[in-house]
Amino acid sequence: MIIKGKYPIVASTEDVWDHLMNPEVLSRITPGISELQPLGGDKYLAISKIKIGPVSGSFEGELELKDMKINTHATIVINQKSKIGNVSAEIKMQLNTIDDITEIEYNGEAKLTGKLAMMGQRIIGGVVSTLSKQFFKTLNDEMNITKS
Amino acid sequence: MSNYIGQSIKRREDDRFITGKGKYTDDIVLPKMTHLAFVRSPYAHAKINSIDTKAALAHPGVVAVYTGEDCGNFGVPCGWQVNFKNGDTMKEPTHPLLAVGKAKHVGENVVAIIAETLQDARDAAELVEVDYEELPAVTNPNAAIQPGAPQVHDDIPNNVVFDFALGNPKEEVDAAIDGANHVTKLDFKNQRLAPNAIEPRSYIADYDVTVDKYTLYTSTQNPHLIRLLMCAFVLGLPEHKVRVISHDVGGGFGSKIYHYTEEALVTWASKQIGRPIKWTSDRSEAFLTDAHGRDYVTTAEMGFDNNGKIVAFRVHSDANLGAYLSTFSTACPTYLHATLAQGCYTTPLINIDVTATFTNTNPVDAYRGAGRPEMTYMIEHLMDTAALEMKIDPVELRKINFIPAFDGVNQPGYQTQVALQYDSGDYHATLDRALEMVGYDQFRKDQEEARKNGKLLGIGFSTYIEACGIAPSAVVGSLGARAGLYESAHVRVQPTGSVSVFTGSHSHGQGHETSYAQFVADTLGIPMENVDIIHGDTNEVAFGMGTYGSRSLAVGGSAIMKSLDKILEKGAKIAAHKLEAAVEDLEYAEGKWTVKGTDKSIAFGDVSLTAYVPHDYPEGLEPGLDFSSFYDPANFTYPFGTHIAIVEIDKDTGKVTLKRFIACDDVGNVINPMIVEGQIHGGVAQGVGQALLEGVDYDENGQMITGSFMDYAMPRADDFPFFETDRKVTPCPHNPLGVKGAGEAGAIGSTPAVANAVMDAISHLGIKDIQMPITSERVWKAMNS
Amino acid sequence: MLMKINVKVNGKDYTSEVTPMMSLAAYLREVLLLTGTHIGCDTSSCGACTIKMDGKAVKSCTILAVQADGSDITTIEGLSQNGKMHPLQSSFKENHGLQCGFCTPGMIMTAENLLSENPHPTEEEIRHGLEGNFCRCTGYHNIVKSIQHAAESN
């Protein structure tokens, strides 16, 4: 499944980068994530709870940031396991500065297994798109609140 | 007295089903019974690095945990050997009871957990840690044979199971296609289907240490075959130590023919733990592991001369058999498929070429029709498409090409170009009757009118033939079957004249308890109430090959007739003795032997009592009235018919509505018209399901994305109108009842009729073809591209 | 942990201790041994488990036994009264509305509910009313006929 999109954030590229790289902020704004524990380096243990249509489950697994260039781009590698199936994804994030707006461009692929793939896949594209928008909207709100 | 044949007698089995007293496998509870749950592979293709079962073993209620290492030597076999064109034996990898080393499709059994309750077993299953290393997967049969494709089995190059060809020499067929006046060429995808019997598979194994015997309760279509395969080819058990029972079975449609890994596993494990074990599939497991149907990717061409006569038919298919070879999988794209390429037409040159492949998907096997619906869809869809292209009426095109009527008695059977000899047929008769039923001329006027009003109406035809009553052992043996395909029957006349019939065929919805009793009662001239039909227990029935391929009545019924002949022959000797007459002077009618031209007679019940109380008895004759028979037919049977669909397509949404469905079938003689019609209805619904709704899809990683009833479109009551059915009768010339079989006809004939109707409705918009299932989305896209 | 429930099933009162995870379908089948209620799926799509609970047709595979505490339940086994078959039962037999019989109990319970709400439904209403019940054998043809026939004899 391809995950792809753009979202403009009204903030400087440096600010956006700092927020995105802050595990405490990330765990607060990422839908479903309840915990993000540093494992050393750029690896984290992520614990999340997600409900997609008829399928819901608790996920646990690694989240890693790699290919990082400060204020420019990073790749998020996610390997989440649950009783209803596993998710593995690699998503590249690019920050583009357009005047006083930072555009986050993301592009990647996710693989699903188990019940998650069997029963959720047909609607999951829509769900991912909704969750992504929710993530960026919360990030946007969060940053503008922090600013003011 | 009795005249049951041909009457729509209400089914005696219904009394238990409508009151909730059916006895399906999962309804059975044995003392000290344990429950089994599987850990199944979440990956289509993965190396199993390690399995940690410690936590599962420690879970409360867990009795035992097994992995592939524990039962690694056992594997379920394939029942049909097909050789490569060069004579090499097909590739036949071991299908282990639990995955060993690698998992090769999503849902493959990896770990078995046995516990006191199902909940305990399932909870413990979640504690098993399997370290998988995911490997690239391949799911499409055509992609699987390309160089560099992922290898399902490390030692089987290019994933090829076998290649196969049937028919006339390829060069001759190629030349005829090249020289044809018109060639219609289509690419086909006979999509993968999930059989979805509403009763999920269920097995209970019970090993009794005191007598060293096993009992397996199983939801199968052929208990004896399961016993034979499991004992002789999997577990190495002596057959007399194993009893297989299948009481009521909630639908099969092919999916319950096969010997599954789970069946052998529960049987083996029951001895290990010394207690009964039950496993019942849930629906998700059913989607993942019940053998699927169809899944061919094909290119087919039909060449015509300038009079519309077919000059040649050429087919190349890649058939997807999944990750392992299921019991009859290899027969489906070959001998149950290529042999049907003649259709009901006089096509002089035919060549079928098939490559069968392994992929990282669930095994594929026979599903209602098995190979024949796929071929029929190709032939009949080509016919309607060719008619459109050549601007000939599709009915006319068929009539030009039909094989003339032959009864198999006064005219010989019809020798096809693809190995079979048809028994009897009158293809014009069913077509003419179906045209009458639909009102063809009026329909074309209505269609024109509807188009003027912006409505899209279409009519589609299918004049199908099929080979069933599967059959002659010598023939199927020469084609690769590893078993005979006769049937056995044991008829025991009880001392007081009631009759117990033990049949090796199996009823899982077909109503044998009623229809068999009808012809037995008629043949013996006794009331139906005095006849009992027993099936589904290897301890009661001596042997049997089970029910599939529309064979029960044609083969199983004929075996019963043989035993009845023997009973009447012996009965006549006893009667002659009692009546002090010669056997030649007796006639048997209405349940009694009468001395011709006199009123001296003796009733069936008096003869049977004499047979068991032989105080005054013919010299040299054994007591008793009890005969077994095996019937091995001379040929397959060849039902045929015409199906016509009328559809309306919504211009805005692309939704296809089935407005009318007309079926005029010829299944030979009919014992119980109500039951035969019911079989046609059910078959048609499944065929329409393939045309419009159903399809198993895997994503590019081999994950099944249609694994529930919310994702897989099952036909529902409001997808159909009432079906309009009628029959013609061309008796089968080579079996005593003259019957041909009706179980699969509906599913074979209906699919192309519906697909053709859709194209008839929209081809004037410049649309060439739409692949099945013809969903609203696909129609809408085709209309808007 | 076990929880105590009181239910009336087919006119008889039962008190049982069940786990909170147990579905009503499993309770009927495994505890009361009323195996006429069948389980055909895990997404409440197929309708084989349909029963009547407090006068309404429900799919017992997606109701927990503990939720049924205090309720009045009718299963296929309780449909015939005093040894006399319910008109729908006889109509299903008369019209060949079943083949393998597995979907039949749920089909009949759904039909009973349909006719109690709409005693004289049209063909379309019947087909619509059966949307939540799958049959793989009959093509629904004779099921619809059976229900029409039962409605006519009402």
> What's the order of the H and E elements of chain A?
EHHEEEEEEH
CATH superfamily descriptor of chain A:
START domain
Q: Could you tell me the strand content of chain A as a percent range?
A: over 45%
Count of all domains of chain A: 1
State the helical fraction of chain A: 25-40%
Computed structural class of chain A:
alpha+beta
CATH homologous superfamily placement of the largest domain in chain B: Aldehyde oxidase/xanthine dehydrogenase, molybdopterin binding domain
Compute the average pLDDT of chain B.
96
First-residue to last-residue Cα separation of chain A:
38 Å
Helicity range of chain B: 25-40%
- CATH C-level of the largest domain in chain B: Alpha Beta
Low-pLDDT residue spans of chain B: none
* Number of beta-strand segments of chain A: 7
Radius of gyration of chain A: 15 Å
Please tell me the total number of domains of chain B. Answer: 3
Report the span from N to C terminus of chain B: 67 Å
Please outline the helices and strands.
The complex is a heterotrimer of chains A (148), B (785) and C (154).
Chain A: E1 2-9, H1 13-20, H2 23-29, E2 33-40, E3 43-52, E4 55-69, E5 73-81, E6 87-98, E7 101-112, H3 114-147
Antiparallel strand pairs in A: 1-7, 2-3, 3-4, 4-5, 5-6, 6-7
Chain B: H1 14-18, E1 34-40, E2 46-52, H2 54-58, E3 62-67, E4 75-76, E5 95-96, E6 102-103, E7 109-115, H3 118-125, E8 129-134, H4 141-144, E9 160-167, H5 170-178, E10 182-190, E11 202-208, E12 213-218, H6 223-235, E13 242-245, H7 261-273, E14 277-280, H8 283-289, E15 296-304, E16 310-320, E17 350-357, H9 372-390, H10 394-401, E18 414-415, E19 421-422, H11 427-438, H12 440-452, E20 456-465, H13 473-478, E21 487-493, E22 499-503, H14 512-524, E23 531-534, H15 552-579, E24 586-589, E25 592-595, E26 601-603, H16 604-612, E27 626-631, E28 640-649, E29 656-666, H17 673-692, E30 723-727, H18 745-762, H19 776-783
Parallel strand pairs in B: 1-14, 12-13, 16-17, 22-23, 29-30
Antiparallel strand pairs in B: 1-7, 2-6, 2-8, 3-7, 4-5, 9-17, 10-15, 11-12, 11-14, 15-16, 18-19, 20-28, 21-22, 21-27, 24-25, 25-26, 28-29
Chain C: E1 3-9, E2 12-18, H1 24-31, E3 50-53, E4 56-59, E5 72-74, H2 87-94, H3 104-117, H4 123-129, H5 141-152
Helix pairs in contact in C: 2-5
